[in-house]
Amino acid sequence: MPSGIEKIFLMTSVGEFIVGMLGNSFIVLVNCLDWVKNQKLSSADCILTCMAVSRIILLWITLFDSFIMVLWPYLYTIKKISKCIAAFWTLSTHLSTWFATCLSIFYFFKIANLSYPWFTWLRWRVGRVLLVLQLGSLLLLPFSITLTDTISDFWIEVYKRCERNSTWSPIVSKTLYLNTLIAYSFMYFIPFLLSLTSLFLLFLSLMRHTRTLQLNSNSRDFSTEAHKRAMKMVMSFLLLFMLYISSYLLIGWIFLTLEIHMVNMPVLLISAVFPVAHSFILILGNSKLRQTGLGLLWHLSCHLKRAQPLAS
Length: 312
Known about the structure:
The chain is mainly alpha-helical. 85% of the residues lie in helices and 0% in strands. Helix 3 (79-111) runs parallel beside helix 7 (189-215). It is globular, with a radius of gyration of 23 Å.
């Protein structure tokens, strides 16, 4: 029977799952309906849709992991189940991260205005650039899965020790586990650095645009707002992604030092903030999604107002 803290943990996990599913499913539904209606989908909408699908998978895995942690922790001792969860978690996290990185780079090329020759050359080929990035990320995926597999072996040993109350005889040494954890975190340093570079170049472009406006005060300032909106989107991804990776590293450190799996509950809740919160930030930052969402809320409020007299 779950304790009070475990029940609160499960209820919070379900709440995060519902909110995250609403946000990401909304993105997928709106873009799919737009694709059916217009028979085409822009590059940004395509990236958003793929990212939302990968995060829906990630939310399901996180919810499943939460229930296993509380109700059936012995399942972690079954190697096939544990490794299957780890593999799907790695796949969804990898795709979600790289789609978000591609979105940051797309915003940079579409909004920034730089005079460098390499920028002009790449801007005209932004579709190919994003395709190369995605293919390159798929080449890194087997390495991520291999590192996760090593980490999973260590976690299985911890759960087996907790279940049997036995002495420590790990298949994976603590040193190898720590080195693998560090190597895994560096795998995500690449998309983080690409997004950070996009943010920095957007800032340079905004400074250049601001100086141009000072020389021509009569020009209408649409580009400044576009720059600021794009920078907010990229910055929000970087902050939430840092929180997500830090949570994962903290879980790994807890396993290494305390060897107690239940203390991971609050960290798991914190890590779920990334796929949940970022989806709503993207909705608010996208004019089509924002207007559709506001329209949906308006129709819902009107329906509730009509229903109230009937209920009374």
